[in-house]
Each structure stands twice: as structure tokens, then as C-alpha cells.
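Predict structure. Input: Glyoxalase, 182 residues.
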Amino acid sequence: MAIKRIHHVAYRCKDAKETVAFYRDLLGMDFQLAIAENEVPSTKEPDPYMHVFLDAGMGNVLAFFEIPNSPEMGRDENTPAWVQHIAFEVESMDELLASKEKLEANGVKVLGPTDHTIFKSIYFFDPNGHRIELAANTAKPGMLGELKRVAPDMLDEWARTKKAPKHADWLHSGGDFKGAGE
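Output follows.
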């Protein structure tokens, strides 16, 4: 099997029209198409839905389902709100800061920017309660290569200890990056 790319990622929404307006007007995503049926094609269940698709850039598609006959939408209460999120890349720090300003001007509460060393991010919630991250890359040469190099060892150590390995603690420590061999 050879995965070509993610075709689309789908989430539930409370109101399809409100969701499209949020992503279109505040995040600049083009509303691509809508599919509505009274029966689920895969299961044949009688369950009306509206399925909307938005262009998240570079062939990435973000989709939402409004399913009015299901119980009210909630979230996984056993998972902290910061864990499950959708992250989108923006072109630059200037664009990240302009996005923050636009969101706040439209009444959206925004956290950040948070410095992750290889990128800086802002965080906010969409009208459905989904946490959204906008990120601007800030990695210096060698950083991503070093993270890839230590990833298998970090994963193995985590699997054994369930404690954060120190292989890449320069990310959030404020310390200087020293790549392999430095």
C-alpha cells in the first residue's frame, strides 16, 4: 500500500452553516462542496446529514458533518482539551500574529503565541469546541534532522518508562540547540 495523501479529515459540527462561515471568513478556507443525504451511504441507516468540505490549502481538505438527529455533540471527557486539535501551518510569524489579531477582533479568545522552538503557535476553539492551532515554522538548520534522528530512541525510552526522554529537551527548555556531533 502506498498512501498518496490525506483525502480529507472529517469532524462533527453543531451547525454546518456557522462552521463554514467560521473557517471561510476567519481562516480563509474556501468552501468547496456540500453533500447531504437522508440515508448514510455506507451503512444505509436513515440518518439525515450535511457534510461540508473546506480547502485547507495544498490539497488538504477539512470536512464536517452536521447530524441533527444524534444526541448533542460532546467531547471525550477523559482526554484533556489541549490534546485533540487540528493544526494548520501559516506562512510566517507576521501571518500568525495577523491571524491572532483578526480572530480576537471577531471575539475569539486566543492563547499564545507559544514558542515550541521549531515553530510558534496560537490556539483557539472553533464554534464546535474543536481546538485549533495555527503554527509558523521557526526551526533553525539541523533541528528537524536532529529530531528525526533521536525519535526512535525517544519512543523506545518512553515505551519503557512513560517519562519524557531528554533527547530533545532543548525544544522547550530555552537552551541552545546543539545538533548531533556539536
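Residues 143-161 form the longest helix (19 residues).
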